[in-house]
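Dear Dr. V.,

Thank you for agreeing to look over these. As mentioned in my earlier message, I'm a first-year student in the group and I'm still getting used to reading structure tokens, so any feedback on how I've presented them would be very welcome. I ran two proteins. I've put each sequence directly above its structure. The first is here:
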Amino acid sequence: MKIIVGISGGVDSAVAAKLLVDAGHDVTGIFMRNWEENSPDCTAPEDAIEAEKVCAKLGIKFESVNFSKKYWEHVFEYFLAENRAGRTPNPDILCNKFVKFDAFLEHAKKLGAEKIATGHYAQVEKIDGKFQLKIPADREKDQTYFLHALDQNQLAATVFPLAELQKSEVRKIASDAGFGNAERKDSTGICFIGERNYAEFLGKFLKKSPGKIVTADGTEVGTHTGLSFYTLGQRRNLHVGGVRNFAEKPWFVVRKNFEKNELVVSQDESELLEKNLRAKKMHWIAGSPPVRKNLIGKIRYRDSGTPCEFFMENDEIVVRFETPVRAIAPGQSVVLYDGEICLGGGEIV
């Protein structure tokens, strides 16, 4: 087949491209430029060079395509609006939905591609006429949480070559192939922020609105720079300590009081535990809600999952967990699983 690979400069997409070439496909590598910034923190120029080197080594065509306008309109503006509202959005999910598996897929089809491929750790399987998104062999690297908003058409056109591989195997393949990025560190953090300071980055775009940091009974223990710059469960960078009549223990963000512009903190981490949540903007990969109500729910990427049940309430769902989960943050996504199958999810309200 003619397959277009989204090649990022990292080891995963490089090996995905190699596996497809080895399998005899007609492969082209495309580097997606989604963020325009001249900054020492932005690694896009270095990434593009590495991606081009990989394509040259594989003897395949390389192209760099700028999707930054679509990224700004569909991902970054929403990210800023959600942060202004004091919520904690996940732009990586939107990036997959609107850029990597939409704008990129559309571009690939214009080039005559039958499929697109990425270096995500996930797998697609067609069962009873429906495409299903499934957990990959390397459960530690499972990225289905970020891919839960994809639809049938997007999954039908996608190949995940790393589905059956462990990360260690991927690095060995890259090393044997002589790729310069074989031992390159995995990228972390939000795609356009990278590994820089989150609050510092937000400060370039959002107005600061300082206020009090208080306990549940209203005792003032510090000051915050603006509710948008904090998330539920946050422990670091609160600058609260040495408060009279309180033990020298960590403080955690447990609530945001928008009426008073107050950040509520506690030293009792159990205050972050909840058993219920409500979610909106539900997306079901199969096109409709599952019949089975007893599932596994994840509220963040590194969540190992908790048994739960869900109930439909108009266009929203209520999820009830079997055991309490920590720091359910509005704006993040709850993603539901039936065994190895990722069913879809929605935005926590």
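The second protein is here, in the same arrangement:
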Amino acid sequence: MNKQRKADLLLVMVTAFWGVSYFLVDLCLTDLPPLTLNAFRFLVAFFLLAAVFYKKMRPISAATVKYSLLVGVFLMLVYVCCTYGVMYTSISNAGFICALPAVTTPVLNYFFTGQKPGRRLTVCILLCAVGLALLTLNEAFRPALGDVICLGVALFYALDLIFTEKAVARPDVDPLQMGVLELGVVGVIMLVLSVLLEEPRLPSTPLFWGSALFLALFCTGFAFVVQTVQQQYTSANHVGLIFTLEPLFSAVVAYFLADEVLLPRGYVGAAMMMASLVIMEAVPGKKEE
């Protein structure tokens, strides 16, 4: 098996873990408060990665620390929105809406860099917006509270990606160190917030322990390491297309494990959102798009 095919398969596995994570988060929230769950998830992942990559974590430059803090704050906001969003909407809706950074990132990048979206991207954004409306609006044409909260994921993760790209382009920033440190930043902030706003506690049963550890070890620690390491062996187009599978995995898991069924127009909306992502990532176009 060549390196690119191996990398693509590993990234598909990562995407599957992220798709499953929506169900596991929904399950764990019946036992743990949201901020406590995120603190547990990210601190376990941080300490695991810090131990595995101990020799590569020294020395750490000031620029690496600076960008780890900045990106870590955005990542913290991503997971706050994602976790609270799952509490107030369906697993399927959360999975599709949280895939929107593939569209929002180029839009925000235009405001930061002045790079104007091309025709194809504009069409994809409009297609995605219509699909989102069909998926999330109820009979009164109002979105659920959780749908609105999940839109924060699209905003903050786009900012996370933009500043991460800026950071790793600097010669004085170590991408692996930043990837590990940002998890620690998220975990510490979540822990402080949980102490101030919740009553922190550990999982109460083996089921919740297993679910929380799976989130920490595979959906966070393993996923971040594989994404960082394997992207050097495959193309950006491959990675973008693979990651559009995340909402499909979340919808399949929700259907079989949580008995979630969308309305007919919801399936149409989800298909339109998926089509917009695939068109943007898979259809050849001009480089500037």
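From my reading of the second output: The chain has one domain: 3-282. Residues 3-282 form one domain. Does that match how you would interpret it?

Kind regards,
E.
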